[in-house]
């Protein structure tokens, strides 16, 4: 969070534009004659000035001060307040940042925890008079800011999908604990994105139904697109969550198959040695052949030992052939 929040003004009409950094929030009022004035504050600050200069409600200020506030919408007497989160990819995970947006008359005020956001394409369009911004009012700018925040979720989800494709191949080849750890990491990211974006359904639903008075009729159509965009992203998230759960199931299935393969081989080996152990057990008994002609007379045969070994070898090979014929090997 910035120690000294920075304020940037984007003031524009169809035929003029001004971009300036100011030190006091009240200086923004000097630009009120422009068609749209976008006041961006990098850092959580100037809250008391915000109340004094723009007469924003205490409900909004208190929501901004709460560090763990969920996305919310406040439809007030003469202004709108929206609190939502921008999500960024960082090394090893995702990070979310609170973003507050006010709409009052021809002013749009954005406040975020730190510098850096997803609004650069909007700034470039305004600077170079590209797109519809210069010919639209503040309500269209608000829509564009919200759409940029929602649109930023798409590349994040695409990256998650790419990682899952790589993991699917690893699961089928490696089956090590590191792969399982990566799968659980993907699942945590998917749930993180879902928890962040899901509250926006209610925000945009209310914005469509209850906040219409702050939007011109031509802009109200875009609000429907915002709601549908969130629904599409949630559908993608649900599909990815199913895929991640499927990867876990594939991982444990391959482990189980590998274990079953090992057990099958060990069972075959053990089965082969059962008759061999039986034979060696019999000839390991200490009977005296001189006491009775029935006490293992073959112990005195000249070729008794090699014949027994050959018999054991024949039994082992015969069992291997039988198992192969039954496709147990």
Automatic annotation (TrEMBL):
Transmembrane segments: 262-283, 303-323
Membrane topology designation: Multi-pass membrane protein
Keyword Glycoprotein: no
Classification via SUPFAM superfamilies: CorA soluble domain-like (SSF143865), Magnesium transport protein CorA, transmembrane region (SSF144083)
Source organism, top-level taxon: Archaea
Localization in the cell: Cell membrane; Membrane
Keywords: Cell membrane, Ion transport, Magnesium, Membrane, Transmembrane, Transmembrane helix, Transport
GO cellular component labels: plasma membrane
GO terms of molecular function: cobalt ion binding; cobalt ion transmembrane transporter activity; magnesium ion binding; magnesium ion transmembrane transporter activity
Membrane as UniProt keyword: yes
Family under the similarity heading: Belongs to the CorA metal ion transporter (MIT) (TC 1.A.35) family.
PANTHER family on file: CORA FAMILY METAL ION TRANSPORTER (EUROFUNG)
Primary role: Mediates influx of magnesium ions.
Protein name: Magnesium transport protein CorA
Naturally occurring in which organism (per UniProt): Thermococcus aggregans
